[in-house]
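User: Predict the structure for this protein chain, please.
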Amino acid sequence: MSINCIIVDDDEFAITHLRVLISQIPFLNLLTYYQSAAQALSAMATQDIQLIFMDIDMPEMSGMEFARMLQATHGADAPRIIFISGYERFALEGYKVNALDYLLKPVVYEEFLKSAYKAKTYFTEKEKPAAHTENYLPNEFIFLKVEYEMVRIYLKDILYVEGFKDYVKVYLTGDLGYVKALATMKAVEEKLPANGFIRVHRSFIISIDKIDSLTKNTIKIRKITIPITEQFKEEFRKFAHQWL
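Assistant: Here is the predicted structure, written as structure tokens:
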């Protein structure tokens, strides 16, 4: 498959760098580039754009404002956005507007390649006909209350959930960090599909497909070791029996 994409960035050097990176990915088809969000927005009606590599910090209209406007005008049919910025603090904001991914400048090839394949996976799944199955699809999501708004969180991005007294932290893949949501562990557990997530501790729910290694008493996800307590050990043992 081929993914039609554009670049939106006011920095000529960044545009040149991205053009080189895109040229090395055979399934990315660069249509053109724009140096302002307003120009890109006006092109939405005339071009079949699927993916946008978007700078956040731009004059006149920021990347975030562009994304919100795109959602308002195109809804579910809006092109997906991969944000590119020199500032890590914008990562959570990008997630709130349903960004497909977030890359930090200067963009290195390895990270760009991961994002490109993330886009390919998304569009491949989108093209598949709907199937009646109990397994959740990579683009399914839940909503959690973050500050004063309900934020959409994709199941495929969740590493694990850590519970505290009156809130939870949902740790996410890549540069997304975590989302601090006003919810109980019980409420989050009920929202998550049992075939994709399992509770192993009073304070931890983990994503099954994000497990890197496990023992009878611990699970490792990335560099974090999560304990399995007696209360949840039997249920986890049934799941992990084929490995332990």
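Confidence is low (pLDDT under 50) at residues 130-138.
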